[in-house]
UniProtKB/TrEMBL annotation, chain A:
The keyword Transmembrane applies. The chain crosses the membrane at residues 12-28, 34-55. It comes from the Bacteria. Keywords: Membrane, Transmembrane, Transmembrane helix. This is Stage III sporulation protein AF. NCBIfam families: spore_III_AF. It holds the Pfam family Spore_III_AF.
From TrEMBL, chain B:
The gene is spoIIIAD. It comes from the Bacteria. InterPro entries: Spore_III_AC/AD, Spore_III_AD. This is Stage III sporulation protein AD. NCBIfam families: spore_III_AD. The keyword Repeat does not apply. It comes from Chengkuizengella marina. Keywords: Membrane, Transmembrane, Transmembrane helix. The lineage of its organism: Bacteria, Bacillati, Bacillota, Bacilli, Bacillales.
Length: 232, 129
């Protein structure tokens, strides 16, 4: 840019020098006026040369126009309204997704800690699904809890004072079924293996615990057991 | 010391012309023309060095050579038209002298036609249609 500018300025200066020279050489008479006009046209031409070279190129004006519009959108606020709104919507969605993910991980950590500390159950993993509703309110969809199979007997150390107030959560669906084992699947059937009874009790305890803590409905909580070796 | 030679030549030619003019005006006119041409020839060497300087200047500045050629042509036209018109005026033909000058002016403007077209086109293109 600077290089180009200096070239252009040098050109102008030298043309003006040339014109002065020519002016000196000229015979002093009526002719001088005409020659001066022509030479001044030359100088004008040199000054305009960037514009001339711009116009010489066959521009694709539509493309250029689009490019300018894009530039405008990114540099100032005079871009087309719809594009700005679109961008805004996109940003909002991204933001919501980020927030949801953050909240999910936080809640997972909290539930994990609470279960470990207060219920003394061996938790394998906790995963939480949240989503945004139309009115931007966060909605807790489901909680999945996978327990280790060698469950300790819950110690019922629930302490109401320790319960931290957590943001309001909306309806919850719990569907309890036990993973990867026919015996546990038979939750509804309730006819096999005495271990199921124990597990079921723990599940119910966990569910009630979570309902108390998080203010969700029982059908949004999924408690599963990680299948033990013999079960597999 | 060319200036002394030229001025001497000019003065001698003038004196001779004044002497001859009474008897033979035609020869006086011829003498004037020749004197003018000889002085011009004297100067040709100098003019060429000046033109070389201008060319160098134009070359350094990356100016279009068309510019320089046109400018030089314009100078040449101006000089020749002036030379001719003055000699004719000295011979006492004012009307012919003015025609020569007119021709010179028109030719100079004719040289400028390409530039004028380019400038006008640029300006028109710049205007919103």
């Amino acid at each position: 840019m600077l290089q180009w500018l200096s070239n252009w300025l040098r050109e102008i200066i030298l043309v003006i020098l040339l014109a002065t020279f020519v002016d000196l050489i000229l015979p002093s008479n009526k002719m001088q006026r005409y020659v001066k006009v022509v030479i001044s046209l030359f100088i004008l031409m040199t000054i305009l040369s960037p514009i001339v070279s711009l116009l010489k190129v066959e521009w694709n004006f539509d493309q250029l126009n689009n490019q300018f519009q894009i530039d405008e959108v990114s540099t100032n606020e005079y871009g087309s309204m719809s594009e700005i709104l679109q961008d805004g919507e996109q940003l909002k969605n991204q933001n919501e997704q980020e927030t949801a993910r953050l909240i999910q991980t936080k809640m997972e950590d909290m539930i994990y800690k609470q279960l470990e500390d207060q219920m003394s159950v061996a938790v394998e993993s906790v995963s939480v699904v949240v989503s945004f509703e139309e009115n931007n309110e966060l909605k807790l969809d489901e909680i999945f809890i996978i327990l280790k199979s060698q469950n300790k007997q819950p110690e019922q150390t629930m302490d109401a004072a320790e319960v931290q107030p957590i943001e309001q959560v909306e309806p919850v669906v719990i569907d309890i079924h036990i993973e990867a084992s026919d015996a546990v699947e038979a939750d509804a059937k309730k006819e096999q293996k005495e271990i199921t009874e124990e597990m079921k009790q723990t599940e119910t305890e966990i569910t009630t615990f979570l309902i108390g803590k998080w203010d969700i409905s029982s059908d949004q909580i999924n408690v599963k057991y990680k299948p033990t070796m013999d079960e597999i | 010391m060319e200036i002394i030679q030229i001025v001497g030549l000019g003065i001698i030619a003038t004196i001779l012309t004044l002497v001859i003019k009474e008897q033979k005006p035609l020869f006086a006119f011829l003498l004037t023309v020749f004197t003018g041409v000889i002085i011009f020839l004297f100067l040709i060497g100098k003019i060429s060095s000046i033109i070389q300087l201008l060319e160098k200047l134009a070359d350094q500045s990356n100016i279009d050579m068309v510019f320089l050629k046109t400018i030089l042509k314009i100078i040449g036209i101006a000089y020749i038209a002036e030379f001719g018109s003055q000699i004719v005026r000295d011979a006492g033909h004012e009307s012919i002298a003015s025609k020569i000058e007119l021709a010179g002016k028109i030719l100079i403007l004719y040289m400028a036609i390409p530039i004028i077209t380019v400038i006008i086109e640029t300006v028109i293109k710049l205007l919103p249609t």
